UniProtKB/TrEMBL annotation:
Gene3D superfamilies: Cytochrome P450 (1.10.630.10). PANTHER family: CYTOCHROME P450 BJ-1, P450, PUTATIVE (EUROFUNG)-RELATED. This is Cytochrome P450. SUPFAM superfamilies: Cytochrome P450. It comes from the Bacteria. CDD domains: Cyp158A-like.
């Protein structure tokens, strides 16, 4: 197909919930820096090539300062949302202060710590599978397993009760809004979430626990730095949103991808050693990954042979980059044994997702448990009938109907 001259409406649509937008290949080939219109009506530049996305995400000149006067607004609401609300900007966006924040948080998310969590995650996954089987088939894998498991994990890490998961889910959706919620609903969710985290932190301060937030309250950096209450609230809120929403959606999509071609599931049943590589390939192959990562440039920069003027907002589509034929052989094929697999699903460099070790642990554990417990698992509807989760920054499926 030929890329149209007018800006494309973004996010792009696709023929099926697991299928990539038809425009991706043409954009990479003909227009690697494309003009798009965001849900807000503002224009941005869309990157779809692997090297370009990797360049921008690795370049500290491209920042998250989406509150700049000339930055494009992402969402249909006038303000708020996960990218540009006041609390989202509480965490330093650049310089040494920005590098200091992840240093204090990432030690909680090392691969060694996550491996220690795995037995507990596996036990909880088994319990959720028990409940799903007891409830009978067909069942919605997303509601039964993919959503409650990451909520339980992140709530345990943060020391908040997972009995509040329905409230967390609503607040998260509102903050991840593209077109689903009104400004009033976003503002109300924002206020409620902040009040909740402020109250929780006050309780933690009175009696610090051995959870992440309890330790961050008393933690001191090597330079004597301690997080302010505003940073602690923003950190708790950000981890709660990111720690369950994206992983819950990815569990559902991963299982759907594997079951949409039954030979994939059968291959994993025959060779469980492929689980780790299969998870990485599901992350790369995910064509329904949301809007990508927005960045703002405060000076003129050249990307993909195009000069981006100062004030440009760039949408980095990691999902489109992960289908780039110049970076991955047979990029449109799901190869369960693909190795190496330098996908960009978690970003790259200093700005890569700090919770990626946790996400990988959860995805691998869930897949291991499902292969062991429900080898006959299958989709209860044709793959083409699966429906996308609409109106949110993150990509996902509205439900994942399964039988066994």
């Amino acid at each position: 197909m030929t890329v149209p001259q007018q800006p494309l409406n973004y996010p792009l649509s696709s023929a099926g919930a697991l299928e990539p937008p038809a425009e991706w290949a043409a954009l990479r080939r003909e227009c690697p820096v494309a003009r798009v219109t965001l849900p807000s009506g503002d224009e941005a530049s869309l990157l779809t090539r692997y090297e370009d996305v990797k360049q921008v995400l690795s370049d500290e000149r491209f920042t998250r300062r989406l509150d700049a006067d000339d930055a494009a607004r992402i969402t249909a609401t006038e303000s708020g949302g996960v990218f540009s609300n006041e609390m989202a900007l509480a965490i330093p966006q650049s310089g040494e202060a920005h590098r200091r924040w992840p240093r204090m948080v990432t030690k909680w998310f090392t691969a060694k710590r996550m491996a220690a969590l795995r037995p507990g995650i596996e036990t909880m996954a088994d319990r959720l599978v028990d409940a799903m089987v007891e409830g009978g088939q067909p069942a919605d894998l997303k509601a039964s397993l993919a959503f409650p498991l990451p909520v339980w994990v992140i709530c345990d890490l943060l020391g908040v009760p997972d009995s509040d998961r329905d409230r967390f889910s609503y607040w998260s959706d509102a903050l991840l809004n593209l077109t689903r919620y009104t400004q009033e609903e976003v503002d109300e969710a924002e206020a409620e979430f902040n009040a909740y985290m402020t109250e929780h932190l006050a309780a933690e301060r009175a009696a610090p626990g051995d959870d992440l937030l309890g330790e961050l309250i008393v933690a001191t950096g090597s330079d004597g730095y301690r997080m302010s209450d505003r940073e602690l609230v923003a950190t708790g809120r950000g981890l709660l949103v990111a720690g369950h929403e994206t992983t819950a959606n990815m569990i559902g999509k991963m299982v759907a991808m594997l079951l949409s071609d039954r030979s994939r599931w059968e291959r994993l049943l025959a060779d469980r050693s492929l689980v780790r590589l299969a998870v990485e390939e599901a992350l790369r192959f995910d064509a329904n990954a949301g809007i990508g990562m927005p960045r703002y440039i405060g000076e003129e920069v050249q990307v993909g042979g195009t000069v981006l003027p100062r004030g440009t907002t760039v949408m980095c589509s990691m999902a489109a980059a992960n289908r780039d034929e110049t970076a991955f052989a047979d990029a449109d094929e799901m190869a369960l044994d693909r190795s190496p697999n330098p996908h960009l699903a978690f970003g790259v460099g200093a700005h890569s997702c700090l919770g990626q070790a946790l996400a990988r642990t959860e995805l691998q554990t869930v897949l291991d448990v499902l292969l062991r417990r429900l080898p006959s698992l299958d989709l209860a509807v044709p793959a083409e009938d699966l429906r996308r989760l609409e109106g949110l920054v993150v990509g996902g499926l509205s439900e994942v109907p399964v039988r066994w």
